[in-house]
Amino acid sequence: MFWTLTTAVGSYLFIVAVIVPHVVVSLFSRTGNLPHILARTWARFTLLCANVRVEVRGSENIVRGPAIYMPNHVSHFDVFALLGYLNVQFRWTAKKELFSIPLLGLAMRRAGYILVDRSRHDRAMASMREAAHKISNGSSIVIFPEGTRSCDGNLLFPFKKGGFHLAIDSGVPIVPITVLGSRDVLPKHGKRVKPGKIILNIGKPIDPGGHDVRSLMEEVYNSINLGYTL
User: Fold this and answer.
1) Regarding predicted confidence, which is higher, 98 or 74?
2) How much is the pTM?
3) Fewer beta carbons under 10 A from the terminal one: N or C of the chain?
C-alpha cells in the first residue's frame, strides 16, 4: 500500500506542479517536442515514486526518422516505462477516456497526442489520418496493437488493424517492443503497486514493403513474442 500511495500522490502532485509550465511551453512549441520532454520527466518521476527501475535492451534498433513503435500492453506502467525511457520523440495514440482525466488530458492534448475513439469507425479513421500527418512531419507514433491491456500477460491476437494500415500507407517501419515485468508491478485491475523492474526489449525494425495487413500483423506478433525469450 505504501508504494501505491507514493506513486499516486507523487504523480499527481508532479502534474499539478508542471501543468502551468507545460501549457506555457506548448504555446511556443509547434512540434510538441518540448511538452513531450516534460511528460517524459513526469513518467520518470512516477517510476521513481513507485521504486520501479527500467532497463532498455536493443536501443540500436531505434530508427533514425519516423517509425511506428508497437509494444505489448499488460499494465498502466507500460506507459510510464515507454514514455520515460524510449529515447524517441513520439506521439501516443490513446483511448478517448484518458483525455477526460483532469490535468492529464489537457497535458496530452498540448503535447500533440492522438485521441482514438474506437466506438465510431469514422473517428477512428480520422485518428489514423492525424497520425499519418504527424509521421509526414517527422514524428514517430506509439500504438498498442492489442488495443487494450492483456489480463494474463499473453498477447491478444489478432491485433487492431489501424496501425498496420498506417504503416503500409505511410511506408515507415514498425519497431516491435516487448515490455517485461510491468504486470508484476501492477496487473490489469490491480489495486496495489509493487516495486520492481521493467525491461523494454526493442526488436528489429520491420519494413512494411511487400506485406498486406495480415502478414505484417503476424510478423509483428512473432517479433514481440520473441522478445519474451531474449
Assistant:
1) 74
2) 0.88
3) N
